[in-house]
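Question (not urgent): is this output format expected?
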Amino acid sequence: MPEEIELEEIKYDKVGIIPCNGEEICEGTLTRHASRKVLDKLRSGSTVTICLPLFIAGDKGEQNFAKMFPTITVDGCDKRCSQLSTERLSGKPSHSIIVSELLKAHGIEAPQSRRTLTEKDQVAVDIVAEEIANKVDEILEENQ
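Got this back:
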């Protein structure tokens, strides 16, 4: 009878963030700004970004990272381009955030401009960024 081999559980120290590009909606702009805030300030040592267009175009480095590491998709709207692409190409993300729904839950209006965020819009960026950061923390804590 073959001997069973126990595999050590993989410990993750990185979480991939896959933001939508959403150029046609204001929430897409918000998504990109909030994701950058997490990547650059809130969880800079424990997050990486995955480029959605490159990911969809078939880049194996992007797709393989999403297969091997936990991911969080951040979509501006309920079309869920990032979430659906991730599920199709690499597997189910650990968490999926839909910015339009998150803003509605907090009673905050979406930005009015796709190009420029106002001081008021920064509150929305902060809420989305905090939600992403909290999901990163949950993933890493579950994996301790």
